[in-house]
Amino acid sequence: MSFRARLFLALALAALLPLSALAFGVRREMTRRLTAENARRGDAAVAALRDDLARASAAVAARLATLTAELGRDNGLRLALVQGDAGARRGLLDLAGSSMRSSGLAMLQLQDSAGRILSSGHFRNAYDRVEPALPMALVAVGPAPVLVRARTADTTLLVLARLDSLRVAGGRYTIIGGTAIEPRLRGSLARDPDLSLRLVEPGTAVPAAGATTQAEAGPSLVATLSLPFVDERASTRADTARLVVTRSPGTLAALRRSIDRWFLAALAATVGLAILGAWWLSTRVSRPLTELAARTAAIDFDRLDQSFPSDRADEIGALATTLGAMTERLRLGAARLREAERRLATGDLARQVNHDIKNGLVPIRNVLRHLSEVARDDPAALPRIFEERRGTLESSLAYLDTLARNYARLSPAAQPAACDVNAVVAEIVRATDAAHATLRAAPDPALPVVSADPLVLRRILENLVGNAVDSLAGHSDGIVTVGTEAVGSAESAQVRVTVTDTGPGMSRAELDRAFDDFHTTKAGGTGLGLSIVRRLVLDLGGALRIETAPGAGTRAIVELPVRGAAAAAPTADGRNG
User: Fold this and answer.
1) Tens of pLDDT along 147-183?
2) How many CB atoms lie under 10 A from the CB of residue 290?
3) Pairwise CA distance, residues 139 & 134, whole Å
4) Rg from Cα positions in the chain
5) For the sheet containing 437-442, what is the strand order?
6) Which of 83, 434, 561, 563 has the maximum number of C-beta atoms within 10 A of its C-beta?
7) pLDDT score of 118 more than 80
8) Separation CA 120–CA 153 (nearest Å)
9) Are 178 and 106 in contact (CB under 8 A)?
């Protein structure tokens, strides 16, 4: 880690740790206080809900008492109930409806002592039904508020119901009335937007009590109120319904988000100040060291011209002086090393040239000695002997000529131009004599043009194809395939040429020496073929690699940059096979 990075990290930690502790403390204290306030407000809201239900129940009871007193004085009701007057009986059907509307109730029902419905304001079709269960359940509950799920013509109605009775001509009649409770329940907690109320009827699971810390993501349970409940559709007795009050974490979550946003803003400002502080201090302290490191990093075996001037008298100045002296020693040592390498390479090349020329001259010397002996001992036979030994002379001269041409190829003058690789491949396939092998071309018809010297490309492919054909000697069913294809992206497009044979392949040891100068496994070979090919491919800005295995044949791969595309750094690797 650099000095600048360590300085930045120290400044950032010095600022971030107290800031983080402060943000955590503020967030925790706000959560605690708001949770306590929410609990207090929740208890107050639940108490207000109980009082509201009690007041609503008392109001229903008062309306029923007033209505009962009015009906006791109604002669039309008396005529309908006692004398059975037909006109009064028809008015009895509408009695509950008109009375219900005039008293502001949502449910009103009149029953006789046997439970027969004489009039129903909320469900007129219930007339003459015998349903004693509802009044019996209300009598069993007593004066407490009761929730009733009452039938209507289309749906059901949830009401807060009470019961009253009246006597007419010695008969006892029951009046059941109620007010709609659902709007009242929805509005009872409207003052606190985080509180919500839900009615859980019998048979429905009550949500489990959640933690009151408001730390959960979902709503938490504040309280549960149990109320008697009667379902007019099915129940024969009072059951228990629950009013579940829950609180959503909306306000607390919004507060936390606000604190988090401010913390992130402070964090960004702190990081920015830490970066500025680290930059300022590093420029004052580490800039001289950075400059020395940059100059040192630029030193290379081929670039030893770096200097380390310094007018400082401290440790940094001493370091610059030491580096300058070291660079000067490296410069002198590199010059001596290059000279030694040049002499060594020249000596090796001279020995190789001497050895190869001697190999070509020995047969010529032997033939000339033989011809001299025949000319001295049997001159008449000289023409015949010359013809017999002529092939040896021509073979040796051809060897020397080939050797000279191979050495001349070590330094060709390439002339890059737009080159059609498919055309070069087709020409080589036509010109190659492969009597003991099948030579095939597999060109890519959409191959782009490369920038290369056609003569150099031809020499590369001639060597590779020649090696592939030679590897199939003794194999009558051998196949050599020369293929082309476009590879790479638009920015680094390349043309790949592959020369594949079905020969015996090479071992790892043979592959490791395949590119060594003057190494050959063929009788009469110079050992310069793959060495020259590798250098020529590098000259074209391409890459060469060999893939091979014993018994699996050999695949030579040449990749050349497309004309106009950014060429990759040239490499040559025969160790990927």
Assistant:
1) 888 888 888 888 999 998 888 877 888 999 999 887 7
2) 15
3) 9
4) 54
5) 437-442, 478-487, 494-501, 554-561, 543-548, 571-573
6) 561
7) yes
8) 11
9) yes
